Amino acid sequence: MADLYTRFVEPGRLAMVSYGPETNKTCVIVDIINNNRVLVEGPHSGVKRQQIPIRWLQMTDLKCEIGRGARQKTLKAAMAEADMENKWKATGWAKKLAIKEFRANMTDFDRFKLMMAKKKKGSLLKKALKKK
Questions:
Q1: 8 and 45 together in one domain
Q2: Cβ 21 vs Cβ 37: under 8 Å
Q3: What residues form DSSP beta bridges with 129?
Q4: Per-residue pLDDT, 2
Q5: Global pTM value
Q6: 5, 27, 47, 80: most buried by Cβ count inside 10 Å?
Q7: In what helix (H) or strand (E) does residue 93 lie, and over which residues does it extend?
Q8: 39-80 pLDDT, tens per residue?
Q9: What CATH number has the domain bearing residue 68?
Q10: SS3 for 19?
Q11: What is each CA distance from 83 to 38, 87, 121, 125, in whole angstroms?
Q12: CA 41, CA 76: separation in Å to the nearest integer?
């Protein structure tokens, strides 16, 4: 039977932090400390090299080829070679996070405009369905 799980905790795996001060930032696993903790770094997202519990991370499908304990320069080069930033931005997960962040930063007037656009769309849809 084929192996169903593919998002392993391994050096080079792109992960998203889901808890703590770095929440919703992506980072790359650099080294495995023990069963519960890993060393991560995110030069592209501002996450400094630090150890984080595995429970705080959500693994993605993206991975770059690095050795254990790679330096920042090596990590940046491997990420650039694998084009990880653009691949991450193209995922549905990243798009959903961007929409969530955009909506959180909306002003009252933006929310009002959105409400009016939804009302107009609904009325146009209702008219189109009534014609048929």
A1: yes
A2: no
A3: none
A4: 62
A5: 0.80
A6: 27
A7: helix 92-104
A8: 999 999 999 999 999 999 999 999 999 999 999 999 999 999
A9: 2.30.30.30
A10: coil
A11: 23, 6, 38, 41
A12: 10
